[in-house]
Amino acid sequence: MGVYMSEIVKYGMEIKDIKENLFVMIQMLQRRSKIETQINKLNIEEYQKLMKYDLELVNIAADVTDHYPVIRIFLNATKPESEWWWHLDKVNSGDLKISL
C-alpha cells in the first residue's frame, strides 16, 4: 500500500458519508485539496483509487448540491476552478467541465 492510500481511503469514506452533515463535507473537500498537492507523488494504485472516488463524487454532485444549497454561496468563492470538487454546483450544471 502506498504512502497516501490511507488519506485517499478516508476521502472515499467521507464521500459515502457526505450527506451526514456539513462538517463531513467540508472535511472531505479539504482532504481532497490536500491530496491534490501530492498528486504527482501518488503511485498508480493510489491514483486509480483517487480517480474512482472522484468519479463517485461527480456522480452524486446533484444530490450534494440539492442537499447543501448553501455551498453555492460560500464554498466556491475562494477556491480555483482547478479544484473542481469545491465547485460541485458548476460541475452538476455543466458550467465547469472536468476530465477524470
Describe the structure concisely for a colleague.
The chain has 6 helices and no strands. It has 100 residues and is mainly α.
User: What's the gyration radius in Å?
Assistant: 13 Å
Q: In total, how many beta strands?
A: 0
Q: What is the molecular shape?
A: globular
Mean pLDDT reading: 88
Count of individual domains: 1
**Strand portion:** under 5%
- Largest sheet geometry: none
Fraction of residues in helix: 55-70%
H/E series, N to C? HHHHHH
Structural class: mainly alpha
For the record, give the distance between the C-alpha atoms at the N and C termini, rounded to a whole number. Answer: 22 Å
Which spans have pLDDT < 50 for at least 5 consecutive residues?
A: none
Determine the number of helices (DSSP H or I, runs of at least 4 residues): 6
SSE order and pairing:
Elements: H1 5-16, H2 22-36, H3 44-59, H4 61-67, H5 71-74, H6 88-93
Task: Walk me through what this model shows.
The chain is mainly alpha-helical. It has one domain. Helix content is 60%, strand content 0%. It has six helices and no strands. Helix 1 packs antiparallel against helix 2 and helix 1 runs parallel beside helix 3. The two termini are 22 Å apart.
Key terms:
100 residues, mainly alpha, 6 helices
